[in-house]
Specification:
The structure is a single chain. The chain is about 65% helix and about 0% strand. The chain is built from five helices and no strands.
Length: about 170
């Protein structure tokens, strides 16, 4: 008697999503980091031109640092999408886990930028020649909200085995 291939449920996971849980999480984390870094680069560095990634040198060095940040952002996002393609090929992509990890990655990057890059290393500020407190508060509070959103989504992304024990069959 031939065995049937693993079938996918509505969440796109096979019978062993826990085996690929860390890959789904890692891919989402990289995507969130890449996406928020790209958005920061485009909005604050290019469109608004409020700062460069590294503002402690010449404008030329600042633009170079922006290019390096943009390259990092694209690398992280594209790398994560290759991981997604591999997970989908294996029928092991876990969308809810990936989305939660993406929010977590975006929030972690933004909080790191707001606290470490802005305050500890003083690489740049959000803006110059203004009262920074409102900008810092908005920046870091939005980072915490992204982190909390990711944590909430991840808390709801339980494996089918745990759902079955809880009396539910959906993932």
């Amino acid at each position: 008697m031939a065995t049937k291939p693993a079938t996918s449920n509505s969440a796109g996971k096979t019978g062993a999503p826990a085996v690929n849980s860390s890959r789904n999480f890692g891919s989402g984390l990289f995507f969130g980091i890449g996406l928020i870094a790209f958005m920061d680069e485009v909005v604050f560095h290019q469109l608004l031109q409020w700062h460069h990634f590294y503002d402690l040198a010449t404008t030329r060095i600042g633009i170079l640092s922006d290019g390096l940040l943009n390259s990092f952002a694209w690398f992280a996002a594209i790398f994560s999408l290759f991981m997604v393609a591999d997970l989908r090929r294996k029928n092991a992509f876990w969308l809810k886990k990936w989305i939660g990890a993406s929010f977590l990655g975006a929030g972690a990057f933004q909080l790191f930028d707001g606290l470490i890059n802005h305050k500890v290393l003083n690489l740049h500020q959000i803006r110059y020649n203004v009262d920074l407190l409102p900008y810092d508060l908005i920046w870091n509070i939005s980072a915490v909200l992204l982190l909390l959103t990711g944590a909430f989504i991840l808390s709801k992304a339980r494996t089918p085995q745990k759902k079955k024990k809880a009396g539910r069959s959906d993932a």
